Amino acid sequence: MTDSSALSAAPSAAGRDAVLKFYFGPMDCGKSTLALQLNYNHGRQGRRGLVLTKHDRSGGPKVTSRIGLGLEAIEVEDGLDLVALVTAHDRIDYLICDEACFYSVAQIEQLADLVDEHGVDVYAFGLASDFRSVMFPAAQRLFELADEVSRLQVEVLCWCGRPGQLNARVVGGVMARTGEQVVIGDTAASPVRYQVLCRRHHRAGDLGEPLRGL
């Protein structure tokens, strides 16, 4: 991308500059629910979009929420070129990118290119940090590039009643401190589950008495 192209963003169909927005928060805060709602709202206005995801809890190419909503989606494989995906269509006005924290950094750069060079609105949703409270590389790049970054305001609570901020990985009733950054849990086939904790109890590894045996 040249300097001149970066300064001359293509206008979107609505006659304005396209935007890259990143919505983040811990699990259970409604990220996928909002993604599905935004897709519905844009579609109602005659806009054409694509819904993307990676490592959805359903195990398939879907966006699913914990309150039972769901929609078929395109699975973002590691080598998928998002610019090529979009430009292969006659017209795409927007992208819904769920679980964007699991995309590659190169794919986040491609999302920015779609906004700046092709006038496509991009709405990305995901976690900010992993089970160790270390930021995902893709999430970090979204924080750096996004036009707008929003922490979702749906209140998620730790077992102690404080606001839940961090996701703990639980294996055999014990909070894990090491392991692969991405491990899918909370499924019937997985021995891994995740639990939202406040900062104090995440640092202490305290899952709360009622939940330790789960």
UniProtKB/TrEMBL annotation:
A Gene Ontology biological process term:
thymidine metabolic process
Q: What is the originating organism of this protein?
A: Nonomuraea endophytica
Reaction equation(s) it catalyzes: thymidine + ATP = dTMP + ADP + H(+)
Is Signal there in the keyword field? no
Ordered alphabetically, the record's keywords are: ATP-binding, DNA synthesis, Kinase, Nucleotide-binding, Transferase
Check the record and name the Pfam families matching this protein.
Answer: TK
Which residues carry out catalysis?
A: E99 (proton acceptor)
Record-listed substrate binding positions? V182, V183, I184, G185, Y194
GO cellular component, as recorded: cytosol
Q: What is this protein called in UniProt?
A: Thymidine kinase
